[in-house]
Amino acid sequence: MGRARILIVLAIATVGSIGLVLIVSAMLGHKAPPPQVVAAQPTAPMARVLVARHDLAVGARLTSNDMTWQDWPVTAVNPAFITDGQGAHLSAPTATSAIAEQANQTVRAAATVVAGGPNPMDQLSGSIVREAILANEPITNAKLVRGGEGGYMAVVLQPGMRAVAVPVTASDAAGGFILPGDRVDVVQAHPTDASNGRGGFAAAVLLRNVRVLAIDQNSQPPKNGQQSQIGGTATLEVAAADTEVVARAKAQGEVLLALRPYSDAGQPSGPPTDQGISGQVRIFRSGQAAETVTLQ
């Protein structure tokens, strides 16, 4: 190897050594930045809002299984929402007492939406859905109607049906055992023409399997174990074409309601035949069935 070549190799090695030293020095002299400490931010207080457990259609009757409580940010609680009235709870201990007090005021104000008792679920059970409510949507009074409130009967009625009232007594309504929600037959009775000396009493079933909407102003069966309800008026749900049948029956004579078994709820409702009130009428004389005639 020539002398010149040896000098070149030594020069390259020297430069490499110097570069390596500089690199190591730079690495040892570089310090990593201190870790940043992020301060814990206070979590917004939450309230419990009453929401729909699943979709509720118009006309549905609320039960406790249709409602549930859901955590809701207090800042998003609308005064129309229904809360449990227990105040807001904080999900982080760093929240200030001022925020908590403001949250509790909002929750208490929303809780007053439901009056009449401490438990909103109990107070709303039995209400009818006036406007559709989606799952997890807050339940508000504006979308419900309760018994005795205006518009209640219009929501309860099925499409194409009408509500008609007939006067009743204990003897006309199965001794008071006919309650809202029951199914009955409408029976019309009146005296027959006595001009030929053969006067008697006629009775006919005009409508079958008709739903009772209310007895007087009560649209729900009595509670506390009471099995009967005496009233002076029964409100029935009949088809629009059958309202004339009931009106004619009330004008012609006494109207009786015959209670049907619960198992008949799925049976057809309306006149016994397709000819409106046409059918057979039994005429009684001196308590005995004398003859049967056909109404046209």
What is the topological layout?
Layout: H1 3-29, E1 46-52, E2 67-73, H2 97-111, H3 120-124, E3 128-129, E4 144-145, H4 152-156, E5 161-167, E6 183-191, E7 201-215, E8 233-239, H5 243-252, E9 254-259, E10 279-285, E11 288-295
Antiparallel strand pairs: 1-2, 3-4, 5-8, 6-7, 6-9, 7-8, 7-10, 10-11
Task: Tell me about this structure.
By secondary structure, this protein is α+β, with helices and mostly antiparallel strands. It has two domains: 46-145, Type Iii Antifreeze Protein Isoform Hplc 12; 159-295, no CATH class. The chain is 21% helix and 26% strand. It has five helices and eleven strands, in the order H-E-E-H-H-E-E-H-E-E-E-E-H-E-E-E. Strands 5, 6, 7, 8, 9, 10 and 11 form a seven-stranded antiparallel sheet that branches. The chain is rod-shaped and about 160 Å long. It starts with a helix and ends with a strand. Mean pLDDT is 74; it is low at 90-95 and 274-279.
Summarize the structure.
With 296 residues, the protein is an alpha+beta fold.
